[in-house]
Amino acid sequence: MGAYILRRLLLVIPTLFGIMVINFALVQFVPGGPIEQIIAQQQGQGDVFGSFSGSGSDMGLENNSASAGPQGDYAGARGLPPEFIAQLEKEFGFDKPPVERFFTMMGNYLRLDFGESYFRKADVIDLVIDRLPVSITLGLWSTLIAYLISIPLGIRKAVRDGSRFDTWTSGVIIAAYAIPGFLFAILLLVLFAGGSYWRIFPLRGLTSDNFDQLSFFGQVKDYLWHIALPVIASTISSFATLTLLTKNSFLDEIKKHYVMTARAKGLSERRVLYGHVFRNAMLIVIAGFPAVFIGVFFGGSIIIETLFSLEGLGRLGYEAAVARDYPIIFGSLFVFGLIGLVVGILSDLMYVFVDPRIDFERREG
């Protein structure tokens, strides 16, 4: 198993490299860029040179040439001095070919140097580290709660298939799956965050302003109080999918011959269910763990973080994409890709934990 894990870890490098190559190439064809953003802003403000009279370090552009996007003809820059445009191109790194920019960027990433944001005047690594706890909180808690609810509920639905319990819980699950996450989040805000009814939970943020002054248990309570609504909103769709997946997986296993044989030997229903069916049925559920975690961590976090005013990676990446802040875009993409690949390896380890008969090393050999 150790050799298999080592091979998977070594595969992380070329896989992550491929992800970055594809996305960097796609960015070259995206219209607009940081220079166009700056030109548009400055033309609207009137004073073109006011914000850029300083050096490259004042603009926060010293280490970002590798992350710059495509050059353009800057048709919107009519009336601006060509020297000013040329200076911007040099400071953003557009005077270098894309291939050189890409390999310079990847070389910096190997040293964990993600450069500096174009517009925030802060190191990308500091921004990512600052926002990472929020996204991990949403992804980890939502996935954990979804599994804690879905697995027992799915097993009970499989055992009582066709009963009244199975029918009404299926109705609730289908309704939960049909409700968009952002709409459910708005409903929670209106009902429980002082929108129109009760003000039970806070409207924004991950902690209170006086968090550092609270005791340990006070900090835990304050943290749980703040994440309650965002986590519930993030969990609803994954909870529905996992419950039905668990039920169907158990139903398939219950109908197999080895279950009938175990029952014929006189084993109790509980022993048959949890001693034989459970580890086989849970394999497909565990296989969905990376998809659930990454789905909440990547996709749902953008909307949830925006609605609940949480400063997470999803919101950071979205704002960077709108502003064409390429160092943040590629830096957060690198972190997202690395986390996704590591979670995939952890999923394989969970396979072995649930069913020791699985030997990935022998299968590869």
Automatic annotation (TrEMBL):
What Pfam families does this protein's entry cite? BPD_transp_1
Its keywords, alphabetically, are: Cell inner membrane, Cell membrane, Membrane, Transmembrane, Transmembrane helix, Transport
What sections of the protein cross the membrane? 9-30, 136-155, 167-193, 223-246, 281-308, 328-354
For this protein, the record's PROSITE patterns field holds: ABC_TM1
Membrane topology designation: Multi-pass membrane protein
Coiled coil ranges: none
Q: Domain (ABC transmembrane type-1): give its ranges.
A: 132-351
Tell me which Gene Ontology terms the entry assigns under biological process.
microcin transport; transmembrane transport
What GO cellular-component annotations does this UniProt entry give? plasma membrane
The record's CDD domains line, in alphabetical order, gives: TM_PBP2
Record's family? Belongs to the binding-protein-dependent transport system permease family.
Q: What protein is this chain from?
A: Microcin C ABC transporter permease YejB
Question: Upper taxonomic classification of the species?
Answer: Bacteria, Pseudomonadati, Pseudomonadota, Alphaproteobacteria, Rhodobacterales
